[in-house]
Amino acid sequence: MRLTAAIAANCLFALALTACAGKVEYTMPSAPGNADNSVVVDDPKGEVWDRLVPRLSKNFYVINNLDRDSGLINVSYSGDPGRFVDCGQIHSYVKNARGERNYRFPATTPQKSYEIMQGGTLYFVDRRMELEGRMNVILEAVSDAKTRVTANTRYVVTKSGTIRNTQGQSRSFSDTIKFDTGGRAAFPNPNYEDQTTCVPNGRLEESVLDLVD
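User: That's the sequence. What structure does it adopt?
Assistant: Structure tokens below.
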């Protein structure tokens, strides 16, 4: 965010009363767990297929494609990133004539309005996070009586919103990152040393594999 003399002037009056101050801290997410995204079931492939497909259709997944011969099921999820992704924690501290404010929230929060202070300039941020998850569920016959089910997901996380100063000047932002099961990715963030980094928590794959038994 670029500072100008006109924008910075918003804090001059407050300086006569109390010092303007602010900081933004970011805590990285925990390392992704080594959750297994594959299970072996003691049932023939056809039986597992007949059991799994109806259960998927009754849950929050959208079934995009089915190929019984190859054992491929493609499903998708759209919604709250916090259910299935960890992007760390954000803390913004602001102090001016209006007092002190602390904003602490998970970086995956779907919608958040908060303030940040930079160089004595106060900004208002409206921030949104969205997740699009697309998963391939693959059924493989290990033997006539055993089936391996594997879930692999492509995660697409979008961060967007607006930043506005006290003079009403604003700009919008939108960035998208992509990563796969067990992977990670970071949003570009030239204003801070730490980049918002997202990792899967494994629950999306687990939620599908739990339907197998």
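The longest helix spans residues 45-57.
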